Amino acid sequence: MAGLVREGKVGYIGLSEVSSETVKRAHAVHPITAVQSEYSLFERTVEERGVLATLNELGIGFVAYSPLGRGFLSGQIKSIDDLPENDFRRAIPRFQGEMFYKNIELVKAIEAMAEAKNVTSSQLALAWIISKGIVPIPGTKRRKYLEQNLAATAIALTETDLYQLESIVPLGTDTGAPYDEFSMGLID
Q1: Does pLDDT of 25 surpass 70?
Q2: What is the pLDDT averaged over residues 169-182?
Q3: Residue-wise over 7-17: b if at least 16 C-beta within 10 A, else e?
């Protein structure tokens, strides 16, 4: 890839779902511009494993995909039946059995905080990520949700707000694996 950058065929190099060690090794060969990984109140592995600290140390940007916990943090999923029969999320541990119901309770607490702030749970979850200087890339199929997501950029969270949110879902909370067992084995 570094050769392709030198040849002008590639502008920048980014990585996805990598460990801190992989970032360091790759960055030593050629500067890495950005890393993309799943990151949300429900998925904070990049914090736990020091990836965000490494990116900050090396001046590498971070892009968070699935910032709404694969839709959970939108508050729109109340039952597994809210997902179509062929939806891949049905195979993800986060959406299965007791973990599903545990996560519903976490979402309810986030929704209560969002309601008190007169915003949606999605907006609150996105504002939390933005407050950390991270670029979220939420997916959306409807203009209404796109507009709501954009409005999240105007939400200023206080230290108290951040503490309250992170008390609902503390670092290290098990919300279920983000992928099925096979896919988890493919990450870095």
Answers
A1: yes
A2: 82
A3: eeeeeebebeb
